[in-house]
Amino acid sequence: MKKSWNNSPWRARLVLMALPLALLLSACQSDKKPSGATNSPEASVADAHNHEAAGDLYTCPMHPQIIRDKPGKCPICGMDLVKKSKGGGAQAQPSASLQNLLKSPDATVVSTQATVYPSTGAPDLSLTLTGRVEYDTRRTEVIAARFGGRVEKLLVRYNYQPVIKGQKLLEVYSPELVTAQQELIFILTQDAENRTLLRGARQKLRLLGLTDAQINRTIATRKPTYSVALYSPYSGYVVEQSAQPGAGLPPPPTPEAGA
Q1: What distance in Å separates the CA atoms of residue 135 and residue 245, rounded to the nearest whole number?
Q2: Which residues have C-beta within 8 Å of that of residue 85, sequence separation ≥ 6?
Q3: Per-residue pLDDT averaged across 240-245, rounded?
C-alpha cells in the first residue's frame, strides 16, 4: 500500500522551510558584488550627483565615464581631465593666449567696420595718371589773310616759334590789294576834296588788313605797294602754320575752325 504525500504534514513543513531559505539566498546575492565590477549607469549618475554637490568634477573628453573630483590624467588614454560643465559635458577652458580672440557677435560685427580718425590739414595725395595735354582754346588765336594772293616771303618757319605783337609774319602779293590801293590813289588825284570817297577807300583797305601806317604811306607816295607785309596782332607761340613760300594763301577759316 503506497503512502500519499499530497496530504502529508511533512510536505507542508518542507515548503515552509524552503521559502525562508530562498529569501535568505536572494538577500545574500544582492549584497555581494564581484571584485572589479563596474557600477551601473544609475549608480554612476547618482555618484556623479553626489560629487557635484561636493565641488567641481573633472572628466575625460574621450571617456566621459571617467569622473574625478580633482584634475589629473585619464587612466584609459592618458589625456588631461577637464572640468565638467553643468550640462554634463566636458568644459574645455580656453588658454590665456585665446582670450583676446574670442568676441561676442556684436563685437565681431563692429570690429569689421573701417574707422577713420578726423583730422585737419592739406592731404598729401600723389596720383599717377595717363592723359593728353591740350591747348587752352580760350587763349588760342588765328591769324588769317583777308584777301587772296601769293606768299612772297615767309618769316615764320617752324612750330612753337615765339612771336610778339607787331612782328612781321610774311609778305604777300595780292591783286585785290593792289586794286584797292589804286582806287585810293585815283580819288586823291581826281577828287581830293571828296572826303566821303576818301573815307570809303581808306576803310576798304583797313578791312582788307592793312594798317593805318601802310595806308598813309600809299597816300604819301601815290604808288601802290605790290608786296604787302602782314603783322601779328598777338604775342605767343606758333602752334600751327599752313602758309608756304611761293604758294597761294590758304582760304580764311570758317568761324567754327577759327574759334
Answers
A1: 27
A2: 91
A3: 83
126-169 confidence digits (pLDDT tens): 888 898 888 888 888 888 888 888 999 999 888 889 999 999 99
Kind of pairing, strands 168-173 and 236-237? unpaired
Residue 183 confidence (pLDDT): 93
Instruction: Provide φ and ψ at 6, rounded to 5°.
Output: -65, -35
Whether the pTM exceeds 0.85: the reply is no
Q: Are 236 and 169 in contact (CB under 8 A)?
A: no
Strands 162-163 and 58-59: unpaired
Which 3 state secondary structure label does DSSP give 14?
A: helix
Contact by Cβ (8 Å): 196, 187: no
The HSE-up count of residue 196 (CA atoms within 13 Å, CB side) is: 0
CA 60 to chain centroid, in Å, comes to 53
16-41 pLDDT, tens per residue? 454 444 444 444 444 444 444 444 44
Report phi then psi at 256, rounded to 5: -70, -40
Domain boundaries, the chain: 43-90, 139-258
HSE (CB half, 13 Å, CA atoms) of 210? 28
